[in-house]
From TrEMBL:
Residue stretches in coiled coil: none
Gene Ontology MF annotations: DNA-binding transcription factor activity; transcription cis-regulatory region binding
Species this chain originates from: Variovorax paradoxus
Source species taxonomy: Bacteria, Pseudomonadati, Pseudomonadota, Betaproteobacteria, Burkholderiales
Pfam families from the UniProt entry: TetR_C_1 (PF02909), TetR_N (PF00440)
Keyword terms, alphabetized: DNA-binding, Repressor, Transcription, Transcription regulation
UniProt-recorded name of the protein: Tetracycline repressor protein class A from transposon 1721
Gene name for this UniProt entry: tetR_1
Length: 223
């Protein structure tokens, strides 16, 4: 096998699916590739660089809704963007753990700028657009972290909790609804709440105060 960046990433992602983040190591990856550990460092200067590249590759392959479609509203786009990110993180074992704490690669900043410009062009001021993108992204990572951290005995724990809640009518009703919905539907509900809240807040904000320029300054500008 030719040892290049693409081959290393392919093997690393397959190994992640097999053993998870806790057991993933450059030593094990080198063994899988049939090379000495230092050979990996010609392509990735350390394990952190490898993990960042793996995260970027996951998003490149599976996160396909980074810009709005023609005619799409800002809230419809942000919903689809969050769904796409959600699917990408779930596509790999421990995908959310791999992504958590990462920063955009400098090479991706043109896309981030284009994404922000698209949302601003659809009517959301830049600061609010950035806040929304970050909030939805962190919410998505959190949802996937919880889902991927589900222990093997989760069903037994849930049954015990539901039994203990049976004598508490409000909790019993809420837990039943929660169990019935499942993680994907609950993710969608949370996204809807965030977007509806953002729309309500934007609708209640005053228009940008160009009229707040003092009269003398306005007159001076008119000369």
């Amino acid at each position: 096998m030719k040892l290049d960046r693409e081959a290393i990433l392919e093997a690393a992602l397959a190994l992640l699916d097999e053993v998870g983040m806790d057991k993933l190591s450059t030593r094990l990856l080198a063994e899988r590739l049939g090379v000495q550990q230092p050979a990996l460092y010609w392509h990735f200067r350390n394990k952190r660089a490898l993990l960042d590249a793996m995260n970027g590759e996951i998003l490149r392959r599976a996160h396909d809704r980074k810009l709005p479609l023609p005619g799409e509203t800002w809230d419809a786009f942000l919903r689809e963007n969050a769904r796409s990110f959600h699917r990408a993180l779930l596509a790999r074992r421990d995908g959310a753990r791999l992504h958590a704490g990462s920063e955009p690669d400098p090479g991706d900043l043109d896309m981030v700028e284009a994404q922000l410009a698209a949302v601003v062009g659809l009517g959301v001021p830049a600061p609010q657009a950035m806040t929304l993108l970050i909030a939805l992204g962190r919410y998505t990572v959190g949802c996937v972290l919880e889902q991927q951290a589900t222990p093997p005995d989760a069903e037994v724990q849930q049954q015990a909790l539901d039994a203990a809640a049976a004598s508490r009518p409000l909790l019993a009703e809420a837990f039943a609804s929660y169990r019935k919905a499942g993680p994907d539907a609950l993710f969608e509900i949370g996204v809807d709440l965030m977007l509806e809240g953002a729309k309500a807040r934007l609708a209640g904000e005053p228009a940008p105060a160009a009229a707040s320029i003092p009269k003398k300054r306005r007159a001076a500008k008119g000369r």
